[in-house]
Write a structure and sequence with these properties.
Layout: H1 3-15, H2 18-22, H3 28-39, H4 42-53, H5 62-77, E1 81-94, E2 98-104, E3 108-110, E4 112-114, E5 126-133, H6 136-141, E6 151-154, H7 165-170, H8 172-175, H9 177-183, E7 188-192, E8 218-221, H10 223-235, E9 242-247, E10 250-264, E11 274-279, H11 289-308, E12 316-321, H12 329-338, E13 345-348, E14 356-361, H13 368-377, H14 397-402, E15 405-411, H15 416-419, H16 432-450
Parallel strand pairs: 5-6, 6-7, 7-8, 11-12, 11-13, 13-15
Antiparallel strand pairs: 1-10, 2-3, 2-9, 4-8, 5-9, 10-12, 14-15
Helix pairs in contact: 3-11, 3-16, 4-11, 11-16
């Protein structure tokens, strides 16, 4: 279905009065989902509360620990059972001073932020010639040793897309670009932020270095500053461009993070549970509203709504994973600790709070009746069916490790990369109407799954 038609369907669904929707459904679950479309308050309460009272929740830090305490209290107050903090150890990186300055030939400051897991320049910084690579592929083509003693600048041309596919195109510049540049001799790397907005707000995020390659300082320039640097290369007429860079992040060593878990207990605890996941940590530049407090609010509110419609057959387990941003530490720890406990189906919300527009599963072929029933159940909310095979989000490693059933409720990502990993990831960017649509869709899907007696993956 054309995306503009999908948007129109969603707008009509959101505009319908609650009574008109509820009258079409005799079952309590559908009525509860319809009610959530206009009246759900739990997701917003979680989102507003944790971003206001805790704020940024960098993995492995005291702020993330306060976030776990806050989330557990919130879950207990709303009647969740078996609320717990499951701790694990991790190596923790934190940022320090961050400045970049073009020293020759067009002297001026630039806005930059350090990338996670990178090294320090030391307090005195470094100054070196900058080598411009318009794309990751151009860096790949550079000769070994050609960057000795220089700073690599990696750009790209990321565009906003509804499905977020632009991230896969541009992401390597951050994910592995600094490591690749270091392997060719670069003493530091700067990249164009992996984002689609034109604010002077650089995007942070993790990077990695290949085995045997010493980590180097690396940072992301805001998109306007990256534009300016590209123009400098055009105007320099072959003259070298030099940058002074001061980035002083540090490693704190091993610290404690943890996964917050809670349950809506089902009538038959012998059936594998429905796992609904999000991540509780955030980067430190904003308050982690869209990434991912909104996701935690959505999945928790949906679980409460299903319980309100009547105790489900299966247990619904909420997983608020820790330390996702810096390396999926929580997801891996949860899978390692619970790998022998079968999961009926895994789902994650970690792509902001804009409306869900597409339904995907990995059992469309093996359990076509359930797939079709789920897809049809959310069509009234403007959600399209899909033949794409769901692969799941970062926080449900356990479902992939078990080879289990997975559902992806794909959110509109057009705005997401304007905000994520930036200082602009704050509460005011969340649209309450679209947030409620997420809760309504999740309520409907989770409720059907939690009352499914047979195997979700095969229907047997």
């Amino acid at each position: 279905m054309h995306k503009h038609l999908l948007a129109a369907v969603a707008a009509v669904s959101l505009a319908l009065p609650t009574a008109a929707l509820a009258d079409n459904h005799a079952d309590p679950l559908s009525a509860q989902a319809d009610h959530a479309l206009h009246h759900d308050e739990a997701a917003w309460d979680f989102l507003e509360g944790i971003t206001t009272e805790v704020g940024p929740r960098q993995a492995g830090t005291e702020a993330e620990a306060r976030g776990r305490v806050w989330a557990m209290a919130w879950l207990e107050e709303r009647g969740f059972a078996n609320v717990a903090d499951e701790p694990f150890q991790m190596q923790t990186w934190v940022r320090g001073e961050e400045t970049a300055w073009i020293s020759l030939p067009f002297e001026q400051p630039m806005h930059i932020t350090a990338l996670g897991n990178t090294a320090s320049t030391g307090p005195d910084g470094i100054e070196a010639e900058v080598v411009y690579f318009p794309s990751y592929a151009d860096l790949e083509a550079a000769e070994p040793g050609s960057l000795d003693g220089k700073i690599a600048f990696i750009s790209h041309d990321m565009r906003p897309t509804q499905d977020g596919s632009g991230y896969s195109f541009a992401g390597p510049a951050r994910w592995t670009g600094p490591g690749l540049a270091a392997s060719k001799g670069a003493i530091a790397t700067v990249i164009r932020s992996i984002g689609t907005e034109n604010h002077r707000t650089p995007h942070t995020g993790g990077t990695s270095f290949p085995e045997g390659v010493e980590p180097t300082p690396a940072g992301a320039l805001s998109n306007p500053d990256a534009d300016n640097l590209e123009r400098m290369f055009t105007r320099a007429d072959g003259r070298p461009i030099w940058m002074t860079l001061v980035l002083t992040p540090q490693w704190l060593g091993e610290t404690t993070s943890g996964n917050v878990v809670a349950e809506i207990v089902g009538r038959d605890p012998s059936l594998p549970p429905v796992l609904v996941a999000c991540h509780l940590d955030s980067w430190d530049l904003g308050t982690g509203a869209i990434d991912d407090a909104a996701g935690c609010g959505i999945v928790s509110a949906a679980a409460l709504n299903v319980a309100e419609a009547g105790q489900p057959l299966r247990t619904i387990r909420v997983l608020m994973a820790g330390a996702e941003e810096t390396g999926l530490w929580g997801s891996e720890a949860y899978s390692a600790a619970h790998i022998d406990e079968p999961i009926g189906v895994g789902m994650e919300s970690d792509f902001g709070a804009d409306r869900i527009w597409r339904f995907e599963s990995n059992f469309r072929e093996t359990n076509p009746d359930l797939h079709a029933r789920l897809a049809q159940s959310v069509a009234r909310f403007g959600v399209a069916n899909s033949t794409i095979v769901a692969t799941g989000g970062a926080d449900i490693n356990i479902s992939r490790d078990q080879g289990g059933a997975i559902i992806d409720l794909q959110q509109d990502g057009t705005r997401y990369f304007e905000l994520h990993h930036t200082p602009d990831d704050t509460l005011d960017k969340v649209d309450p109407v679209q947030l409620r649509q997420n809760v309504a869709v999740w309520t409907q899907v989770v409720g059907i799954l939690a009352n499914e007696a047979g195997s979700i993956q095969t229907g047997e």
